[in-house]
Amino acid sequence: MLQKLSLSGLKVVKKLCIVPKVECGIRFLSSAVIKRQNFFFRQLFDTVSSTYTYILGDMRTSEAVLIDPVLEHAERDATLVKELGFKLIYAMNTHMHADHITGTGKLKTLLPGTKSVIGKASGAQADIHLHDGDLVKFGDYQLTAVSTPGHTNGCLTYICHQQCMAFTGDTLLIRGCGRTDFQEGSSERLYQSVHSKIFTLPDHYTLYPAHDYKGQTATTVGEEKKYNPRLTKTLKEFVHIMDTLNLPYPKMIDKALPANRVCGLY
Ligand SMILES: [Fe+2]
């Protein structure tokens, strides 16, 4: 059952019950080969912050969304969207990033009509604020916004059940996870989020993180349940691991956070 939210008439709807019945007929080996029905998918990369940006589109209706765009690549992304004949309706973030400035603000000026989207709990300004369970529709496809706090309070994982894929932001990385020692970080919450919201998805769901630092592009629920060196541990062991990472102060955080608090609006 779907219930429409009154968000300026936009195509964001609240789902009251999620029943992911769709079975994927194809196992995808890499992002490059995903092409099913009218679904378009492209993974893009920023070498400075090792951030992945994703374009998802419906080739039938030409509606598309961008997930986690980076400011320095807004021109690249806008050009690609136009070349492909898409109309960008949403520029979305999985959370308020600390390691780069989001490209959502610039994309709004480059592609008029685009709305910025982020989780309400992020505290960042945007045209649309999402809550747990909200649906973001583009053409015949939809993303379910699932609240997965821990790296930050406002972290969302975007799940496309129709394509058996999820965009985990920094909540779950390939064989890793986002750090929990700044913003509203909480190791306990991140562990609970992953185990209750991501590891409960079917094993074959492909997971696309916000970053990778070792050259990998995607993973699956089954792989991470088996091989993630942190999240296969007990909660107590996981908290100890996160408490003793001794990571350096994030070099972009003082510049990125103030910009990202408002970037979705200009
Ligand atoms: Fe992050």
From TrEMBL:
It is an enzyme of class 1 (oxidoreductase). GO terms for biological process: glutathione metabolic process; hydrogen sulfide metabolic process; RNA 3'-end processing. GO terms for molecular function: metal ion binding; sulfur dioxygenase activity. SUPFAM superfamilies: Metallo-hydrolase/oxidoreductase. The keyword Nucleotide-binding does not apply. GO terms for cellular component: mitochondrion. Its EC number is 1.13.11.18. Keywords: Acetylation, Dioxygenase, Iron, Metal-binding, Mitochondrion, Oxidoreductase, Transit peptide. It comes from the Eukaryota. PANTHER family: PERSULFIDE DIOXYGENASE ETHE1, PERSULFIDE DIOXYGENASE ETHE1, MITOCHONDRIAL. Belongs to the metallo-beta-lactamase superfamily. Glyoxalase II family. Homodimer. Monomer. Interacts with TST. May interact with RELA. This is Persulfide dioxygenase ETHE1, mitochondrial. It comes from Parnassius mnemosyne.
